[in-house]
Write a structure and sequence with these properties.
single chain; alpha+beta; Arc Repressor Mutant, subunit A; 2 domains; two-stranded antiparallel ribbon; 4 helices; 12 strands; 19% helix; elongated
Length: 212
Amino acid sequence: MADKLPDKQRRIMEYLQRFLEDKGYPPSIRDIQGACQLSSTSVVEYHLRALERQGQIRRDPDVSRGVELLDGARKRSVPVPIVGTIAAGQPIPVPHSDSWSGPWTGETIQVDSGLLGDRADVFALRVKGHSMVDALINDGDVVLMQPVATANDGEMVAVWLKQEGEVTLKRFYREAGRVRLQPANPTMQPVFTRADNVEVQGRVLAVHRRVG
C-alpha cells in the first residue's frame, strides 16, 4: 500500500516503520521533518493529516509523539500508573523521602500501546510548575517515564536530590565536578549540585497534555 502513496508520504510511512522498530515508540514531528528532508513541521503535519484520512495512521492530539501505524486493527490502550507528582519548577519535597514517588494512589492514565512499545514498568508523573514550558510541558500535564538509572546529556529526566530529599524534572547535563539540571524556561535558573547527590529515576518518553 505504501508504494502507491505520493513520494513524501511514502517516505514518512517508511520512516515511521523503521523508527518504531528501532525505538519502540513513535518519532516526534521534528524527527520526521529532519529524517524525511521536509521543509517545515507544517509540511509534516499536512502529510500526516493526509495519511490519517487514508487510514494509514491514527493520531492522538493530546499525546506527544501520538502517531500509530494502522494495519487493519487498532492497537489497544493500556493503563499506566500515575505514581506521584514531580516539580517542573523549583524542586519540591516528597512525602516519605526514601522514595521520589511516594505511595501510589491507584490512579492510572490510558495510553496507546504503540507509545510504549515493548517497554516494561512505564509509569506516569503529574507535573507541577512551569520550568519546562519551552519543552511543551505545562503545569498539570502528565509525563510518561521509562525507569532508568543513568542519563545522557540533554535528556529530560526525573531526578532525586538525595541531600534535599526532593524531586525535580529537568534536562540533565554533566559538568566538571557537578551536575546541571536545566529548566526549559528562560526566566528560571538551573540547579547545580554534586554528581553524588543526584539519582536519576526515569527518562521522559512522552507527554499527555491537560485539556482545558
